[in-house]
Amino acid sequence: MTRNFANWPIVLVLLIISTPIIIMYAFLVIDTVTTSPPGSAIPNGFTLSHWRFLIDPTATGDVWRPTLTTILFTASIVVIVLGISSTAGYALSRLNMPFRRYFLAVVLVMHAFPLVTLIIGVFLVLQFVGLYNTLTGVVLVKAGLMLPFGIWIMKGFYDTVPWEIEMAGVQDGASRFTVWRKLILPQVKPGLFALALFAAIDAWGEYMLPRILAPSADFEVLSIYLNTVSDPDSTTYNFNLFKSVGLFYTLPILALYAIFRDRLMNIFGGGTKG
Amino acid sequence: MTVSSLIKSAALAATLLASTAVLASAKDVTISVWAGGTGPTNDYRVEAIKMAAEILEREAKIRGEDLNITVEGQTWTTWDDFKQAVTLAAESNTAPNIIVSGHEDIGTWSQSGLLRPIEDYVDFDAWPLNQLYPNLIDVSSFDGRIWGIPQDAEARPFFFSRSHLKAIGYSDADIDALPAKVESGEYTLYSLLDDAKKMQDAKVVEPGKGFMPRPSNGTDYWQFYLSFGGEFTDAESGKLILDKQALTEMYQFFVDAVEKGVVPATYLGMTWDSWHDAVAHDKAGIWHGGTWHKAEWEAKWGLNDFFGQIQYSLIPAGNEKGRANTITHPLVYLLSTAGTDEDATLAAELITIASEPRINTLHAVKSGHLAVGSAQADIPLYANDRWTTAATEQLLPHATALPNDPDFGVIWKAMYRGLESAWTKTSSVADAVNSVESEINASLGNKVVIR
Amino acid sequence: MPARSYLTGLAFLSPALFVLIGFFFLPVVLTAVFAFTNMSTSTGISGGSYVITGNLLGSLKAQGVAPTVVDALSQASFVVDEQSIAKAQAAGTDAQFLAEIEQQLSGKAFSEERAFERELKSLRYRPRSIRDLKLAVDQFELSVLNTRFASAAEAREAVSELVPSAPADVVDEIVDASYTGWRWTTSNFTRLVSSSDTWRLVGNTIFYVAVTLSFTVFVGLFLAVTTFYLPAGAASAFSMLWLLPRITPVVLYTVMWKWFTWEGGFVYTAAQALGLPAFNYMKGSVPTAWTIVIMVNGFIGAAFAMILFSGALKAIPVQQLWASEADGASRWQQIRFIILPHLRWPILFVVSYQTLSLLSSYQEIWLTTNGGPGRTTTVWALESFNTALNSYTGNLQYGLGAAMALILVIVGVALSILYLRLFRFDELLSRPKIEF
Fold it and tell me: Which residues form the signal peptide (chain B) (predicted)?
């Protein structure tokens, strides 16, 4: 449809406003394999030494333990978010119950209201149930934080499933639970997948909650690890090293993003189904 | 046999078993130590406790006991994260056994029940605690009780670049006489601004680098309050004092410094890296820091000839009401209420051993801190270190410390906030002082004397 | 049977309810409760105890509280008599040691703990451990000074026992003043209203939200519209690029901005090479600090807006655009008369959603300028976090911080309700078609 317009001015303007991103991310990659003289951003040599942290724990401390912890952290959050959102979304989309209207409204309000402002209250709850300074505690809080969004998204996906499927199931005498599990869940698989991706990316990048709710615990997620590496007071401080660790940390996300871009696009614009 | 007597005998049997088990097998204890504001040069804050544990284990072995102490150390390079972690951990009953923090936390933490008074666990009449400086013990006390054992002390001096002073007409003799002139009050904070300006005019330092104060909040800024005659506590009532006049003059000093162009209006919040880079590489004219910074400049910033490159002095007086001064801000070993009394007793023993002059000297010299006890002057490592000896002799006698009052944090926060708004010219000096006053009035009321 | 279907619904909802109540509802309630207390590090969260200290007695005396009682309480004394020896015996003090104390020190009284301790240290059968000695000393103490009483009743009893002549109301007053825990108060709110700082914060916050939001919407709009006109390949390259800030972990993202704008960073080096003013842009001047804060947050928001707008644009019938081009419409006219009207609702949505999330976001500001230089880029949410949980001086003011958070919650809920009306929430609900 662009027959009578030229494209290059647009591309040029887009390139200009995108410069900060292009430069930051280009150098994020370039700096990890090069050295540059002080006072200059132009690299003058190729090296793999910034990546030595992968095999040499003396560079920044063992990186693999935090990586495993982060995988565990992310996986638990994804499982919890999927499990709870898929049941609650179904209930809100299909089931008859009191206060449904209000519950939906509350979920919407929560959705727009990050939990971090209530962190003192959260701390007290965790402390009360004995989960302060534990991985479980942080996982639960983070999952709770994502739930309003997850429930809302899943409700949207359930809303698009035709009622006929369910009617048929119910008429065959199956319980609502069986109908949900056997007939409806398979219909919302794309939704589940997208939500899983989103939750994984979000959980992978989480930083505040572990830092505040588990400051002295014996586990460390990659965000905290990276922050330690970025501390200028540390003796191992080195920007290129930091970028290498940072890139290592972000690679899984970038990979997920590159592979499943379209599905993610759907959910990043999420919450707008209504 | 009734149920209750059955339980009783079972309990008795269990106790007996347990006690024999203790006798027969090794005793394992874990002591946790958390330290704030601790970087690589300060690692002896925790290492000393580990060394003490080893000594204690050896002593136990000689007595025929099998004692295994695991010391779990955790350090934070910053203060805010550390204090947050300690406070929240204490609320959830997971505080460490030993806390290494600034002495000013004693007031707050003792009131909230986070600390055990260490005087109930150690003997200040016996070696090595009996050689600790009495004024440092006072600094570790609050409300008539000794809560902590000083871990290090320091002074926070002014530093001058010798080469830049020469560039504006100082002779070597003038530079050597400078500290005495500062001490007598002849050389004031305003003389310093003039000199910084001259250095900038002579183009030996870049504009805005003539005077480089501490880039972030810290004890240091109270020194300027003292320079203008401010006081912390009312000797008579023991109440905290806020001297509005001194505060006004102190804020005005920094505003004047900005007007002169020797320090930028947006200076506060600058990174420590840029600061270290400037002062250690002789790009700054005059600055202030701590005795421990020398260690950092040498370890990390490639400073070789400290005494040849840099002159140091007390913080100059601001006017005739004030005096040249420096603040010492000892860190203290504190004993938390976490764990059993037995653990606390052991932790206190570890702290006592860690205060042995030889062990404490390792920390003092490595990190550029000063001795906590008089016997350290006889330890060769300490005695042969020119910097620690010089600072101990020339600076420490003039040192004051912050009060341990639990409400002092509120005043401090308000003071720094006012300084920020006056410095960045967000508000006028008078408005800044007034909002400090109203802030303190609102939160502390008559607990503070404002004059 | 509505009851049964209700149960099914609740059963499906219960896990969500459980987590949401625990980690959303309860924290909100707690925040609301704390907002009306003077809770801080020194009062503790979980409650206090009753401690009569020297300082406390001093200030009570200055206030004119019965000087005789106060004086009597400030005397610490260590008395060796039958009673205290019996007490020590019951507490398990070593018998030989106790016999020695009785023999040598019976009838003596000490006003200083140190002096009594020194006496004990000179005894032959003193315990080997200093801690045991101190525990023995405690048994001889006749004083309530510095003792932590768990309840007011215990404290009252101890005070009356020590000073039997003290009137009950004086004892009550002293015990009440000795409470170390938090108390109910509304002063957090009066303080916030009276402080000039508050209004500066409000101003900063409004500025931050308004400008970042405009940035988000305009850049998002620009990206969506331009990529709409570009060939698919180029369009997807740009949208991929702009999504990067949104998916990059915040720790890495903010440090990349530091690398970009700090001393020795990219812009710094480039500016130096070009002879432009080079300094730490993130912290060195107020306008540059704000610019960076807005860009850091705006880039994340712009990606979000772009996706929403692009999605809405795809719904425009292509024939309509072709027709307008055939009619000779310029590109601007096309945007003005076809595209923008189509984007009205998505824009409104982005505005409302982003207002809420910007109001409560502080993570990016905290990790970049940290509210500086001075406190010029400090916003409400960051200040609330700093007050409650992040303080260099170590005195965390939970009560005041909670009051600030509560105000944010109220503003957020009010805005949300407004938005729900705006977007005709009722239309989102379709009644369940199966009810049995």
Answer: 1-24
Q: What is the pLDDT of residues A119-131, one digit of tens each?
A: 878 888 888 888 8
- How many Å from the N-terminal Cα to the C-terminal Cα in chain C? 6
Cβ pairs A/B, distance under 8 A: 39
CATH topology classification for C197-428? MetI-like fold (1.10.3720)
pLDDT tens per residue across span B74-114: 888 888 889 888 988 888 888 999 999 999 899 889 888 89
What is the rounded distance in angstroms from the CA atom of residue B304 to the CA atom of residue B298?
A: 6
d(CA A145, CA A184): 26
Q: Could you report the predicted ipTM of this complex, rounded to two decimals?
A: 0.87
Q: Is B230 helix (H, G, I), strand (E, B) or coil?
A: coil
Tens digit of each residue's pLDDT (9 = 90 or more) over B160-203 = 999 999 999 999 999 999 999 999 999 999 999 999 999 999 99
Domains delineated in chain B = 27-153+329-400 (3.40.190.10), 158-327+407-450 (3.40.190.10)
**Alpha-carbon dihedral sign for residues B123, B127, B130, B136:** negative
Domain ranges of chain C: 50-177, 197-428
Of residues C5, C249, C434, nearest to A249 (C-beta): C249
Q: Provide, as residue numbers in chain C, all residues whose Cβ is less than 8 Å from the Cβ of B442.
A: 187, 190-191, 194-195
pTM of the model: 0.86
Distance between C132 CA and the closest CA of chain B, angstroms: 9
Say whether A127 and B74 touch across the interface (CB within 8 A).
no
Total number of residues shown for chain B: 451
Report, in angstroms and rounded to the nearest whole number, the Rg of chain A calculated over CA atoms.
Answer: 23
Identity of the residue numbered A115: L
> Are the beta carbons of B144 and B106 closer than 8 angstroms?
no
CA distance C356 to C349: 11
Single out the residue of B116, B99, B186, B105 nearest to residue B151, CA to CA: B99
Residue ranges and CATH numbers for the domains of chain A are: 60-268 (1.10.3720.10)
* Closest chain C residue by Cα to residue B219: C393
Token pair of B275, please?
A: 């600061």
Q: Are A140 and A131 in contact (CB under 8 A)?
A: yes
3-state secondary structure of A48: coil
As a whole number of angstroms, the distance between CA B390 and CA B377 comes to 12
Interface test with B, best of A131, A132, A233, A237 (most B CBs within 10 A): A233
Amino acid found at C263: E
Contacts 24+ apart (CB under 8 A), C162-169: C162/C72, C162/C73, C163/C69, C163/C72, C163/C73, C165/C68, C165/C69, C166/C66, C166/C69, C166/C72, C167/C66
User: In chain B, which residues have their Cβ closer than 8 Å to the Cβ of A231?
Assistant: 77
